[in-house]
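To whoever is on call:

I kicked off a structure prediction for a single chain this morning and the downstream step that reads the tokens threw a length-mismatch warning. I double-checked the sequence; it's 159 residues and nothing unusual in it as far as I can see. Pasting both halves so you can look.
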Amino acid sequence: MSILAALAAAIWLGLSTSISPRPLATNIAATSFLARRLESQRRGVLGVLAYAVGRAAAYAVIGVIVVWDLAAAPATSMLLQRFLQPFNFGPAKPGSVEGLTRYDLAGAFLLGVLFAVTFCPISAALFFGSLLTLAVSSPAQWPLFFAYGPATAVPVACR
């Protein structure tokens, strides 16, 4: 598979992830966070970029760790779900992200990281089952993760 086809597939998987239940809910929460905290249009755009880069960074770190040892994918997925699910970073827990508001753009980045690693079963299947399989067969893994991450944040950019 060519790198362009792999990048297109990674973007498609990211867009598919963005509309799955938990990522869609976290993107709505991120939109609210960014709209309230970043007053100017320029700061809003920078906030969305920081959020998208945070998501991409989280997926890249997890992806590279797992690609180095593909057998670790199920264990990594279960570990993230077990330890991060109790935090319920999504909008169902009001005020769960309010502490990040004091960090401005760094807070938007951290929000992207936190929301990226709160996998639901659907987003875990798309990331661990599809994207990682694609990455293993691709000539380059990093670009796929950095294409997938921002694609998962598209609903925030469309606010």
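Update from on-call: the warning came from a stale cache, not from the record. Cleared it. Sanity check on the structure: The mean pLDDT is 80.
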